[in-house]
Amino acid sequence: MSWVGIAVLAVGTYGFRLAGPLLRKRLHLSDTLKRYLELAAVALLAALITTAALVEGHSFAGWARPAGVLVGAVLAWRRLPFVVVVVTAAAVAAALRLLGVS
Amino acid sequence: MRSPIRTADPLVRNVLALCAAGFVVGLSFGAIAAAAHFPLSQAVGMSVLIYAGGAQFLAVGLTTAGAGTVAIVLAGLLLNARHLPFGLAIGDVLSTGPLAQRLLGTHVMTDESVAFALAEQDPAARRRAYWITGLSLFVTWNVAVVVGAVAGSALGNPDTFGVDAAFPAGLLALVMPSLRRRPAARVAVAGAALALVTTPLLPAGLPVLTALLGLLFAIGVPAEPAEPTAATA
């Protein structure tokens, strides 16, 4: 990623952050728009999570990684602490690789 | 003076726990960025200047997938657009004080600092919660990214430590509360399915963006209640 990209994303993000306090007396985001913004974020994240778990480039990432992510997902669904989820997912993937799973 | 850990103040305890988690995620980001051949300066630059974990991970993920800068920036901006309603929600927190302080305070606006602020009712308590959370996380995150990036390259292939599984799992843990509501779950499944299906068909980076078409599954969804019901929480 280029420094120009980082700079543009940084300025844009700061703009989003600043716009609220700056404009809050003049701007009213409809509830519908707020909902769609939130859902858009969820859709992007879900897509990233799924492809990151399963795909490396254009091919399958092997079984160890999605297995680790799946275990992490179950723990996250069961509301276990964030740290437990992340460490366990990594440990499962690492352990499987140690056992020779790709 | 009592140690902050022993203090009965739940805010400090929760922020400490949050920072512990943030440290792990930051470590992970630093290591993953290093593994993706981002120079240390860029990993640090992103973390200090953009300071948004979701967009940072997205940027690294898309870069690894070969996406162009324009696609990455657009995706990152869309992901970070939620800071606009955040700022509207906590505008009162940033409405007092010297300009320089308010501008800095704006930068540490994240899901967490906003959430902690909104949990308080009194304006002074809100400001305190926001600043304690915001500053603590900013420092924690950036220190962690440096450590992760440096230690990451020293440790060699992060795959042996399963770091590549830690990142999607961590993101999933952060997104999980949103996924417990049916409209968001529907959009998430649609988005994920679209991305997976288009992966062999589209140039690198675009499949994730096709997830936005999953929003079509949100049209016609009735407005959510303000509070999650017991059945959906």
Structure described in brief:
Chain A is mostly helical. In chain A, 75% of the residues lie in helices and 4% in strands. In chain A, strand 1 and strand 2 form a beta hairpin.
How would you describe the overall organization of this protein?
The complex is a heterodimer of chains A (102) and B (233). Chain A contains 4 helices and 2 strands; from the N terminus they run H-H-E-E-H-H. Chain A is mainly alpha-helical and 102 residues long. Chain B is mainly α and 233 residues long. Chain B has helices at 10-35, 40-50, 53-64, 69-80, 83-89, 99-107, 111-118, 123-155, 163-179, 182-198, 206-210. Chain B is globular and about 55 Å long.
Which labels suit this protein?
heterodimer; A: 102 residues; mainly alpha; two-stranded antiparallel ribbon; 4 helices; 75% helix; B: 233 residues; 11 helices
Number of strands of chain A: 2
Indicate the proportion of strand residues of chain A. under 5%
- Rounded average pLDDT of chain A: 87
For the biggest sheet of chain B, the summary is:
none
Helix content of chain A: over 70%
Average residue-wise pLDDT of chain B? 82
Shape of chain B: globular
Distance between the first and last residues' Cα of chain A: 28 Å
Q: Tell me the β content of chain B.
A: under 5%
Set out the fold topology:
The complex is a heterodimer of chains A (102) and B (233).
Chain A: H1 3-23, H2 31-54, E1 55-56, E2 59-60, H3 64-77, H4 82-98
Antiparallel strand pairs in A: 1-2
Helix pairs in contact in A: 3-4
Chain B: H1 10-35, H2 40-50, H3 53-64, H4 69-80, H5 83-89, H6 99-107, H7 111-118, H8 123-155, H9 163-179, H10 182-198, H11 206-210
